[in-house]
Structure formats: C-alpha cells, structure tokens
Amino acid sequence: METGAQTHEGKILILATEACAYPGADSVGQAHAGYPANTYVLRVRSPVMFPERFYMDCFRKGIDGIIVMSCGEECPYPGAYKALAERIDRVYQLMKAEGIDLHRLRLTAICTVCNRAFLKEVNDMNRWIVEHGPVQWKKAA
Questions:
Q1: Coil, strand, or helix at residue 1?
Q2: What are the residue boundaries of the structural domains of the chain, listed by start?
Q3: Spatial contact of 14 and 58, defined as CB atoms under 8 Å apart
Q4: C-beta separation of 129 from 7 below 8 A
Q5: Residue 31 neighbours by CB distance under 10 Å
Q6: Do 113 and 24 contact (CB within 8 A), yes or no?
Q7: Architecture of domain 11-132
Q8: Measured between alpha carbons, how far is 32 from 30 in angstroms, rounded to an integer?
Q9: Residue 25 parent element (H or E)
Q10: How confident is the model at residue 139 (pLDDT cuts 50, 70, 90)?
Q11: What integer pLDDT is reported at residue 115 of this predicted model?
Q12: Angle at 127 between CA 100 and CA 26, to 5 degrees
C-alpha cells in the first residue's frame, strides 16, 4: 500500500431473522469471536417485509454492503423465503439500473448456531468493501 493511501472502511448492514440468524449472530458474541466494528446487525422478524426501495435507500445513506441473513427454506412463515428471494432479485435489477455492483447485496441462510458461517459472511463482505471502496452510482446523463 502506498504511503498516504486510504482504505475505505465501509458500513455493513445485516438483516438477521429473529428465528435463526440473530441467534447465530448472538452465538458469535457468546463465543467471544470478533467481527468488524463497521457491522450493524438489525434483528428483524422477516426480511421479506422490507420493500425494494429500502435497500436502495440504505446504499444512498452510506451503507456499502447488505447481508440478508434468513432462515432459508426453514423459515417459520410459509412462502416468505421464496418471496424474499424474488424481492432480492428485483433489488438486483434496481442495483443494475443504478450501476451498483451486485456483490454489495447478499442473501444467505444462517442457522441458530452457525457462528462460523456468520463470521465468514461478514468478513467476506468486509474484505470486498475494503477492496472496492464506497458505492459508485451511475453518472447522471
């Protein structure tokens, strides 16, 4: 790294389902394992409740990466995971239209004791953000 060069420590937002992923995140703390301080965990009932614009607004307000940690097919709400996957696909289309790299949004399943998987997702996103910098929007024509 050059002298005086700066690295971007972006912000990571995690939407963690209260039934699966949030207890997984909690198990990371119980294991006294650390993850980057630029990570914000939001406990949610079901991430399918967040509309497409929510994600775009997060990027506009300075979030550099979003990880949606769900229960996957084990979701306690029938049809919610399929609806969530479809919603994330629509968000990807909005991201493409704005020139935002799709790696900035991830959908993953995390179980109640998956602290290694939780840490891997967070650390992978953090490395990617440090390497690629802040969100780049399409230039207005």
A1: coil
A2: 11-132
A3: no
A4: no
A5: 11
A6: yes
A7: 3-Layer(aba) Sandwich (3.40)
A8: 5
A9: helix 21-30
A10: low
A11: 81
A12: 100
| Integer Cα distance of 70 and 81 in angstroms | 8
d(CA 90, CA 102): 12
Residue type, position 19, single letter: A
Tokens 């900035």 -> residue: 104
Q: What is the pLDDT of residues 61-97, one digit of tens each?
A: 999 999 999 888 777 778 888 999 999 999 999 999 9
Q: What is the Cα–Cα distance from 97 to 44, expressed in whole angstroms? A: 27
φ/ψ bin of 111: left (φ > 0), alpha (ψ from -120 to 50), beta (otherwise): beta
On whether the CB atoms of residues 71 and 19 are closer than 8 A, the answer is yes
0.85 surpassed by pTM? yes
